Amino acid sequence: MSTPRVETVTPTTVDDLRAAVLDRPGTIRLAGAGTAADWAGTPAPADTVLDLTGLSGIVTHNPGDMTVEVHAGTPFAQLQEELGEHHQRVAVDPARVAEGATLGGLFATADSGPRALQYGSLRDLVIGATIVLADGTVARSGGHVIKNVAGYDLTKVLHGAHGTLGVVARLVLRLHPTPQATVTVAVPCERSGSADLARRVADSPVEATAIQWHGSDQGDRLLVLVEGSESGADARARRLVDAVGGELLAPDDAGAAWEAHAASVRARPADRAVFRFGVIPSSLTGVLDGLEADTGGLTEVTTSPRTGVATVAVPADADVVAAAHRRVADAGGTSSLRQRPAGAELPAFGPAPPSAALLRAVATSLDPDQRLGRGRLAPWIPAPTGVSA
Amino acid sequence: MPERTMEAPHGGTGSDAPSAATPPAAVGPELARDFRDVLPADLVITDEVGRRSYECDGLTGFRQVPALVVLPRDAEEVAACVRICARHGVPFVARGAGTGLSGGAMPVADGVVISVQKLRRILEIDVENRRAVLEPGVYNLEISKAAQPHGLYYAPDPSSQQVCTIGGNVAENSGGAHCLKYGFTTNHVLEMEVVLADGSVVTLGGPTGEQAGPDLRGLFIGSEGTLGICTRVTVRLLQTPETVRTVLADFPSIEAAGDTVGDIVDAAIIPAAVEMMDSLSMEASEAATGAGLTVDAPAALIIELDGPADEVEAEFEHLTAICERHGATRLHVPTEAEERQKVWKGRKAAFAAVGRISPDYIVQDGVVPRTRLAEVLTRIAEMGRDAGLRVANVFHAGDGNLHPLVLYSESAGEHDAAEKLSTDIAELCVELGGSLSGEHGIGTDKACSMPVMFSSDDLGVMHRVRLAFDPDSRCNPGKLFPTPRLCGERPGKYQPHPLEEAGVIERL
Ligand SMILES: Cc1cc2nc3c(=O)[nH]c(=O)nc-3n(C[C@H](O)[C@H](O)[C@H](O)COP(=O)(O)OP(=O)(O)OC[C@H]3O[C@@H](n4cnc5c(N)ncnc54)[C@H](O)[C@@H]3O)c2cc1C
Ligand SMILES: Cc1cc2nc3c(=O)[nH]c(=O)nc-3n(C[C@H](O)[C@H](O)[C@H](O)COP(=O)(O)OP(=O)(O)OC[C@H]3O[C@@H](n4cnc5c(N)ncnc54)[C@H](O)[C@@H]3O)c2cc1C
Question: pTM for the complete prediction?
Fold first, then answer.
């Protein structure tokens, strides 16, 4: 990379983090494990990189309250492992967890996986936060209890902020019990038929935790995740097979199927960029067909027919990507660009919505000099022209 | 020009009055005339009697007659009204059904009340995509009623659901008995149309949970009408569960009931709802509803499971065994839907029913970590004894959300003591690692307690965000943030700084 030399600072406490933000003049890029380093807007060259992986570990876990407070630089997989000892989990499963993604990085990128159907994303599970602003202000919002409406839910604005607005130092999360059993049903199905099939699954009493369509070496199929008690999950999965066909996968096959799915989501195919979007579910098939035609063929396709979210790879071409954003926006949806070849200049987001003005006002109030993550939310928050802060 | 930096709260009390630079509100005949240009005359209320009926919300102790009330009929008219307020530099307060319990919809002096009660259309029930598009004045229960023929429902179910609006729910991030399993309003709203303080209209959120950029929708939900007026809401609908099983269990003590809840959690069962009532609240409720509560039992739990039939059946057996292990003295299992509703009526009518056993009462709302329920109840009982006042307890036990009802007699001069006891209880919740409010909000009522829970820096950052949305603080001013006018020069009570204290865990 031809990036000018930058200094990397690795704070290990919130105090250090605050001191680093105050001591370093100029612009700062926040880095977790680097698994989404090329997502969203291309960052402007920063004077300092704040490596948050030093701010790691559980602060406090209260199993009886089903809550945990965690430093933002904690690798998510490690957190899950520690919680697993108490038969508890954070009920999200983004694909890049396996690559070492940090809790803060997953939160900042609003990432989510197949279980979003049932549990939403981290925004739905975070109940409190400690954040550090560019001026060194340390602020808490929310708290340690699941139910809490005191004050603004400030934490939410950092969800999806991609390292702008503020640094997430700690998060308090609501936990769920780890289910006794997880069973996967695979139903062969072309993408064109996935909407109808997924609807039949949703209308059945199976209460699926995830419903995903994936085209892979194993063929095109719908994967349905059923979680619950040992006997219950199995019985429900069998009832589903009776109703819509397909088969229960053996545990190893199920693991491989979901791993292949996650691998498609986090793939970095040569000369292609990964495009993530969400539209109202009934429009998903039409938008995918349109993108297929616009781009000369999609690869690495995974879709969530019941939530309307899909991840696809398209040619790493600025015009093609811009057209893809426009198509999603025309359907009333949202889109953003993820992995892309190094150095590729591609539009990260679609046309600015009217709320972009509001977003800029919020950004100005929290980080008036745009010290943090400059360029990440461009063009919605354009990098200031002229001298750097 | 408002001076943004000067507006941030200092020393634990934030100034949230309309900025001094704003000219004094000009509530003269021109204002009413401008409203009549966009609304029929009968929807612009200027007469004293008409305005007085908007002077408070469900918290009747706080009253303020507004200068004017307007009743727009659609989103465009709401935006037009807000623009008129902006032009005149006048503050305004959005109002749904006025059932709020924190003085959130209390008008401001020389301000306008913008009621959304005429925006009552269900715009769409989208069965295929499982969502409903609503105007803000739609009553919560109407959503589930409209969805029911399609096997769908709207999950958040505040006890006031027959009479509170979805707009009010969004503003308060309302919860209900079934939020333990299904989450709160914020987990069920996908998209909103919002009129900002300057009259501009934005859409927050999107058709899916997928976000491009920061979550402004989540920030707006629970902001108590201080960031704008919501004029359209898209909510998720859920499939009606295959089975619902409910048990009403009496216990020999509050502790036994509390331990039962703990064991249910430890058994990895997530009930749809776990509600607790003490004998005083049961006495009141039974007198009012005849729901079949055992009035001389020290405590009772109402526990509901829902989901796939087989698993619910197995879990239900496990659950009743746990109740028995903790000495449950009676297990009432309603089999018919009607019978179940009767039990729930006993719970949901509890607030109002307390009026039967006490001339006056205050409904409090606080949260503690669930594992500290027994402790907080013991402390509340002691505090009540010391104050010479009775406290009835009804609460969402599964998530530690208490609703202590402080009983008193205005005519016996007990008001101030009751008020103090109630405030002390909310602040006790914070001391135990919890929150000032689980669902009723801060509003006017608890603004002065905010420094107990948040440092001045915490509040300062919230206030910076407030000014980004509403630079002149004209949108429901004086709510949520402690102001010197409201609270006096009470020094900030928040003591331990998170950094000095190596984290807030000490407070748990
Ligand atoms: C050891 C190391 C050396 C580096 N050296 C250089 C260098 O020489 N030159 C250079 O230009 N870059 C350097 N970087 C930065 C690197 O190129 C990426 O920019 C960085 O790793 C981005 O990771 P990430 O945060 O996107 O990963 P993720 O952890 O996946 O984070 C994704 C997004 O979340 C944001 N984020 C992560 N954690 C938080 C948090 N706690 N609060 C708020 N936002 C957060 C990030 O800013 C990013 O937008 C270095 C990084 C590391 C780890
Ligand atoms: C008997 C009883 C039981 C209750 N039980 C519960 C319960 O179980 N759970 C619970 O959470 N609450 C409960 N509440 C409190 C109350 O019903 C909720 O807070 C409800 O959401 C308020 O809705 P509303 O339409 O009455 O709003 P209002 O009281 O009119 O307004 C409340 C706040 O919302 C703002 N607001 C209203 N409409 C809008 C809008 N369209 N855009 C922006 N801001 C707006 C107002 O400015 C105000 O700050 C109960 C109240 C009563 C009286």
Answer: 0.92
